[in-house]
Amino acid sequence: MPEARPKQAAKPQIQTQKMPSWKRGLINAFILVHLYIIAVWGLPSSSFRSRLVPPVQKYVIWSGLWHSWDMFSPDPLSINFNVEAQITYRDGSTKMWEFPRMEKLGIWERYRKERWRKWRERVRQDSFSGIWNDTVKWIARQNNTQPGNPPTQITLIRYWNQIPAPAKGDYQPIPKEYNLKFSYRFKTYDVKQEDL
Amino acid sequence: MISISGIKGAWNRFFFEPESPLPVAIYRCLTGLIMLANNLLVYPDLFNFYGQRGIVTPSTAVNLSGGTGLNLFQFLPKSDGSLIFIFALSSLAAFTLAIGLWSRISALVVFLTFVSIDHRNPILLNSGDSFLRIGLFFLIFSNAGDAFSVDRLIRLARGKEFGTLPMKAQWAMRLIQLQLAFVYLYAFAWKAMGPMWLAGTAVYYTARLQEFWRFPVPYIFEHMWTIKLWAWSTLVIEFSLGVLIWVKELRYVVLLGGVLLHAGIDYSMNIPLFGFIMVSAYITFVDARDLHLGWERVVNGFKARSGKLAPVPVFYDGKCSFCVRSIRIVKSFDVLHRFVYHDMHSPKVQAEYKDLDLNRGLKEMLVKTNKGWLGGFSAFRYMAGSFPLFWLLVPFLHLPFMRTAGDKVYNRIAERRY
């Protein structure tokens, strides 16, 4: 006679917090929606992502749950840059105004002013041309300090240089400074009275 | 083969198994403090960043990516006064969030004000801001006020809660964990598409971006082999934080790798608060039992160093419900476990402490120190010296007039306790 199979040990019961079924259902729906957002929104750009995003797009943008995790990627920036504004005053004189440069600030100052770095990074890019008018108007107001001689024209200039590729050999010393040898005037604006 | 009931069971266990609120409560404290630090950093440039005539005007912001959506400024007058109001509200709520006062409402207010400020000028934001915003959103739904909070003290005082922390489903904390893991998984996926990261030269370039320079990179990291090691280690750690963090046995090693990664970034690159924002969320992955064990080790080490090994006995009137509730609150401050609490009506206690003055004990709480018995305000003052949260207050408790004033207040409360 075949041996009787031993009875399976009873599975341990899962202890979960007791709550009304409608509440559990609501929470489950909430979790599912947000799990979907977590999993889909941060995906690297692809046609796959483009197909998955639309159902939640309006909600995510409205609620402020948008995000991107592409820090220093796919590849980090390989240029150093700076942005300056050339200010022309009514009397024809000119002055150069430099956007905050973190590397020229003290340790605490650069920590406190980091968001100015982000602003400069955006202003430099053509994809953020939408903020250029506000930028030049703000610079004009900041530099409207001479009575009867207001700024009349602002020109934004970007400077940049490629970071040299790694040299041959193992030792790769970090230079103390980089010369930014290329420049380009990317925005000129005639300042109006109401801008000041 | 996996069954549907198996999936359902795993889902329920993951999201709804009752757990300690300790990790998410610590995350709440840290998030409140980080928000306060963020507001302190922003404050000097508040009007330049977000004012009506700032670097980006409100009419421009709405046309930018990330510039539309939930925004409290829409409901307020278009003036810099509204900005001051939102900013002050954000700072106040960040403080109450850190101390755990009206925890859920505080998280909601911080989230709403932070989202509004972010939508007001989205060009200033980085990934740390995004994670902070999402973390705040999930904190609204969490039980983060169940520990380390003024909310808990209030519940203890009202007799709605007893000594142990309430075990509840921590599904909101699970979502924070999942978000954190996906941050790293996708950060890895993005980098895996970059030739520089794969070749190991990415860190060569990031270390040479002047705008991010902070402290000088040590000589050892100016060599190609260490540069490549750093870049590839970043990939390994980010992948591990996304995937291997879910393996129980590897969790703490992976978290340690994450801490080292952020410490390295924070040392060499000027990205304020980013490392703190990310690492603060690691606490949600630490088991509450390990937090207790770790704290016990700290306490025992502290006791051994200070030579205060034996707990000091405290005696209270166990027949007075007010006294019992008060002792529960006192116990929650006694994080160094310096005291042992006795109901003076217990025959066992009376037998052990023959010199216990029961009549005095009915009037005031008693503490038996090496130098003799202390009661009432003096007992409280003695105990406060052992409660870290009270350390700043202790010098004031020893001012000349405090003894008289303290005794009066203590006696007044004691007389009305029944």
How would you sum up this structure, described in words?
The complex is a heterodimer of chains A (196) and B (418). Chain A is 33% helix and 19% strand. Chain A has helices at 21-41, 47-52, 54-63, 107-112, 114-124, 132-142; strands at residues 79-89, 94-98, 151-162, 182-190. The N and C termini of chain A lie far apart (101 Å). Among the domains of chain B are: 17-169, no CATH class; 310-415, Glutaredoxin. In chain B, 40% of the residues are buried. Classes of the chains: A alpha+beta (196), B mainly alpha (418). Chains A and B meet through helix 1, helix 3, helix 4, helix 5 and helix 6 of A and helix 1, helix 6, helix 7, strand 2 and helix 9 of B.
Largest interface, C-beta closer than 8 angstroms, per-chain residues? A-B, 73 and 85 residues
Largest β sheet strand count, sense and barrel closure of chain B: 4 strands, mixed
What distance lies between the first and last C-alpha atoms of chain B, to the nearest angstrom? 63 Å
What percentage of residues of chain B falls in helices of 4 or more residues? 55-70%
Radius of gyration of chain A: 28 Å
Query: What radius of gyration of chain B results from the CA coordinates?
Result: 26 Å
Low-confidence stretches of chain A: none
What is the count of β-strands of chain A? 4
Cα shape of chain B:
globular
Strand/helix succession of chain A: HHHEEHHHEE
Oligomer state equals heterodimer
Whole-number total of structural domains of chain A: 2
Strand order of the largest sheet of chain B: 4-3-5-6
Describe the global form of chain A: extended
Number of helices of chain A: 6
Main structural class of chain B: mainly alpha
β-strand amount of chain A: 15-25%
Q: Which strand-content bin applies to the residues of chain B? A: 5-15%
Q: What are the secondary-structure elements of chain B, in order, as H or E?
A: HEHHHHHHHEHHHHHHHEHEHHEEHHH
